[in-house]
Amino acid sequence: MIEELGNIIDGSERPPRRGRWIDVVEPATGAAFARCAASDSADVDDAVASATRALPEWSRMPVERRASLMEALAAIVERDLEKFARAESIDSGKPIALARSMDIPRAVTNLRYFANLAREQAKAPERSETDAIFPGGKRGPARSEG
């Protein structure tokens, strides 16, 4: 049976609202090994609404707790490195040795880096906890001015 990878919204996996799926093909064999949600604007609207509902609680969470959650995720990825490396190799077609030695360790390093960065920025006297996550108080993608 081919695994279906739905959308994670409100903490649970759900199929795409319009029921459309995309085959995920292993480049080395050309065989489909999974199906992922072919999400559209309705699914995006659901995800944005969910994130909007979650924002007040997340905003009240101390930076230290947020950083600890990122570190916990890094530890899980590191613990399951072989599983993630196999998945990355199948999904991308790259050699498993590369996924094992570079891609997955880099993901672990990035999670730990941003956990520590949030802590350090929160300690700076001129910054609030919000600034540690959203530098300059901005809560959206950076845009160039001019």
Structural notes for this entry:
This protein has about 150 residues and is of the alpha+beta class. The chain is built from five helices and five strands. The protein has helices spanning about 40-60, 65-80, 80-90, 95-125, 130-135, and strands at about 5, 5-10, 10-15, 20-25, 30-35. Helix 2 runs antiparallel to helix 4 (about 95-125). The relative contact order is 0.10.
Fraction of residues in helix:
55-70%
| N-C termini distance | 53 Å
Q: Based on CA inertia axes, which overall geometry fits?
A: flat
Instruction: Provide the β-strand percentage band.
Output: 5-15%
Number of strands: 5
* Low-confidence parts: 141-146
Element order: H for helix, E for strand: EEEEEHHHHH
What strand order characterises the main sheet? 1-5-4
Classify the secondary structure makeup into a structural class: alpha+beta
User: How large, in whole angstroms, is the Cα Rg?
Assistant: 19 Å
Topology, element by element:
Blueprint: E1 3-5, E2 7-9, E3 12-14, E4 21-25, E5 32-37, H1 41-60, H2 63-79, H3 81-92, H4 96-123, H5 129-133
Parallel strand pairs: 1-5
Antiparallel strand pairs: 2-3, 4-5
Helix pairs in contact: 2-4, 3-4
Characteristic key phrases:
disordered C terminus, 5 strands, alpha+beta, 3-stranded mixed beta sheet, two-stranded antiparallel sheet, 146 residues
In short:
The chain has 146 residues and is α+β, with helices and mostly antiparallel strands. The protein is built from five helices and five strands; from the N terminus they run βββββααααα.
